[in-house]
Task: inverse folding
């Protein structure tokens, strides 16, 4: 608890006379709490909060000879072999020494496509901020899931059935990524996106067979911040010919937080005003806006009681609504750690340190960079499970339709089409040019976990450029 931050919000604005005029609207609510007491409830850590990472010991990253080196190994784990050799499985884990850091090492998985090496390369970013992508690997769209006997079972709807799939533990301090120097903790999207761009440069240099493949960025939740910044960084690097050209074709955000001013409920005017003052580059004002707006969500939870705010159809079980403890158990097994080359580094499923380091980033608007990408032909897919509360489909739909670009009016007036999977309506799709919005039926915050078949079909159609094909055919059939 830090009482010194719980002051009248307008005192932050005294240097600006227009802001002072509205100070009465910005009084910090009496029940506002400093984020350190809220972090474990709000981040997508769910029920996993190990200690933060400390200095490295015995990882594959110890063998990095310089900051721009990748150390990668093929691996197999219990339940996966079925007679296949490690090489045939196409599963890789590795570390990369971040060049613009003091001692940071980034951990990643790379899963070759089970379909074709010519499939697009897709990178997945889990949100939080500060949550490991292993949550997605084992519970959402990875190649396998964890059985109760701590062996792995192949996922029939893993996204590696339609892509060559990368999962990265980022920012530094998340998952198996670590540093022995606290200065490597990132505080803004520039630091996060620069690290990811550096990683891609070295990854494709180490895997030249994939360098010319189509490339897509995907993720969910707080990745609604990461992804637009990362996509802009890649696009900028390509234009400036900084290094290897990355064949960026598009990005997809699931139930993300992208434009907080639109997505957060306007019942509380001070929240909207505070976010506007935060803008895209504020610091103290952005922290204050987090405090003010967090009050809204806490108020909703008080009324809702034990509801699961990631899926309102369900009750919250435990402090953070889900139980992913099998992942913790599995990743702490000695044989698993040896196979992955992570040594004795403690796995951090969701880091409160990383979460709090990005508090001034939360309420910034990341929508601002997307129109330029659309104008240059980069495809954008925003999808959302209809039963999520925390990053709900309505708020996402509103910011997408409010976004100003040359195709805005055509997108708004485009028809809403049924998204059909195996003859059944799995969602409602709105699309025009490079922009698509998909509301997914019977899903909460984590669409690939709740609707794995629909999520895989969404990825496959979108990356192949025909996300509306079956929907349009069905709509025409209904009209006849």
Result:
């Amino acid at each position: 608890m830090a009482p010194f931050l719980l002051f009248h919000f307008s005192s932050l604005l005294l240097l600006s006379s227009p802001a002072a005029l509205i100070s009465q609207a910005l009084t910090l609510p009496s029940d506002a709490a400093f984020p350190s007491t809220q972090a474990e409830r709000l981040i997508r850590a769910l029920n996993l909060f190990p200690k933060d990472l400390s200095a490295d010991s015995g990882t594959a990253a110890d063998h990095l000879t310089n900051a721009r080196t990748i150390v990668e190994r093929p691996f197999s784990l219990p339940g996966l072999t079925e007679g296949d050799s490690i090489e045939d499985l196409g599963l890789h884990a590795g570390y990369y020494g971040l060049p613009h850091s003091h001692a940071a090492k980034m951990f990643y998985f790379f899963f070759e496509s089970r379909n074709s090496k010519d499939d697009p390369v897709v990178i997945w970013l889990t949100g939080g901020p500060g949550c490991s992508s292993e949550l997605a690997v084992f519970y959402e769209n990875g190649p396998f899931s964890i059985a109760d006997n701590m062996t792995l079972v192949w996922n029939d709807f893993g996204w590696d059935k339609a892509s060559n799939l990368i999962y990265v533990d980022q920012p530094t301090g998340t998952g198996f990524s670590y540093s022995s120097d606290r200065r490597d903790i990132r505080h803004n999207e520039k630091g996060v996106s620069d690290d990811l761009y550096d990683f891609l440069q070295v990854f494709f240099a180490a895997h030249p067979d994939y360098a010319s493949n189509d490339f897509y960025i995907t993720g969910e939740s707080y990745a609604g911040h990461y992804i637009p910044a990362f996509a802009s960084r890649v696009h900028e690097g390509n234009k400036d010919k900084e290094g290897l050209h990355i064949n960026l074709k598009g990005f997809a955000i699931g139930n993300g937080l992208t434009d907080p001013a639109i997505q957060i409920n306007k019942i509380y005017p001070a929240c909207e005003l505070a976010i506007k003052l935060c803008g895209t580059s504020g610091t103290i004002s952005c922290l204050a806006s987090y405090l003010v707006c967090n009050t809204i969500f806490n108020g909703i939870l008080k009324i809702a009681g034990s509801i699961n705010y990631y899926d309102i159809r369900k009750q919250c079980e435990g402090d953070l609504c889900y139980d992913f403890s099998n992942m913790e158990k599995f990743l702490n097994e000695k044989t698993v750690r040896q196979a992955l080359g992570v040594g004795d580094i403690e796995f951090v499923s969701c880091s409160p340190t990383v979460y709090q380091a990005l508090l001034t980033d939360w309420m910034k608007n990341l929508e601002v960079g997307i129109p330029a990408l659309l104008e240059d032909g980069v495809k954008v897919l925003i999808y959302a499970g209809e039963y999520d509360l925390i990053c709900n489909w309505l708020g996402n739909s509103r910011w997408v339709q409010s976004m100003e670009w040359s195709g805005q009016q055509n997108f708004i007036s485009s028809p809403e089409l049924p998204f059909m999977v195996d003859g059944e309506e799995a969602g409602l799709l709105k699309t025009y040019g490079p922009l698509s919005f998909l509301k997914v039926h019977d899903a909460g915050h984590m669409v690939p976990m709740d609707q794995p078949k629909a999520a895989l079909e969404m990825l496959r159609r979108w990356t192949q450029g025909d996300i509306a094909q079956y929907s349009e055919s069905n709509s025409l059939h209904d009209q006849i």
Summary: The longest helix spans residues 284-304. The chain has a mean pLDDT of 83. The longest strand covers residues 424-432.
